[in-house]
Amino acid sequence: MDSGQLVLVYSRLILGASAVFLAIMLWSKTRDIAWLFLLIGTVFAYIEIIYTVLESLQIITGGFFFVGSTPLEAIILPVFRLGFIIAAFLVIIIRRYRQK
Questions:
Q1: Where are the domains of the chain?
Q2: Does residue 57 register a pLDDT over 90?
């Protein structure tokens, strides 16, 4: 692994850990469902970062279940991350239209 890849891996891990730390701090302070969906999406984003880093370092080689030749985890993690973020935006949009 060259220095550019190391910088990429370390920056993703450090920034992702910072985002999750702040998300967990905010989680205990909020009761709003839109914020909770956004925070859960952030946690899934960091899980996805860790999974891709471990996979690129060949520490893990994939899962037990495959869809074609793709491990199921490689499909589910981005879908969950984006699904929770989409749910947060939908809750906000629905609230805005109900107020009018």
A1: 3-99
A2: no
Q: What are phi and psi of 58, to 5 degrees?
A: 60, 30
Instruction: Give SS3 for 88.
Output: helix
Half-sphere exposure of 11 (CA within 13 A, CB side): 6
pLDDT in tens, 22-36: 998 988 888 899 999
Q: Which of 100, 80, 92 is nearest to 32 (CA)?
A: 92
What residues have CB less than 8 Å from 36, skipping those under 6 apart?
A: 27, 30, 88
- Is residue 1 classed exposed, middle or buried when 0-12, 13-18 and 19+ CB atoms within 10 A define those classes? exposed
